Amino acid sequence: MAAYTLLQLFEVVLAAIVLLIGVLDRSTPTILLGGGLLIGKAILNILAAEGGTVYRRSLIGYTVGGIFILGAILAVHFAG
Question: How is the chain split into domains, by residue range?
Fold first, then answer.
């Protein structure tokens, strides 16, 4: 297995652990953080088909994930 593949698997496992900790602690911000990290990783991998550097794809993916996290935290704050 390539080092890049192992790194990706490691990142997904860490994001899943953050998500699981948030669910077990019933902590909405932690759940949203884990979900945002997984969204960022998914977008990074979706963009792989278009080419481009890993840095560019990571920047786009994790920026979208960060926007999701901030937007969702604001929505939770004002909804409840």
Answer: 28-80
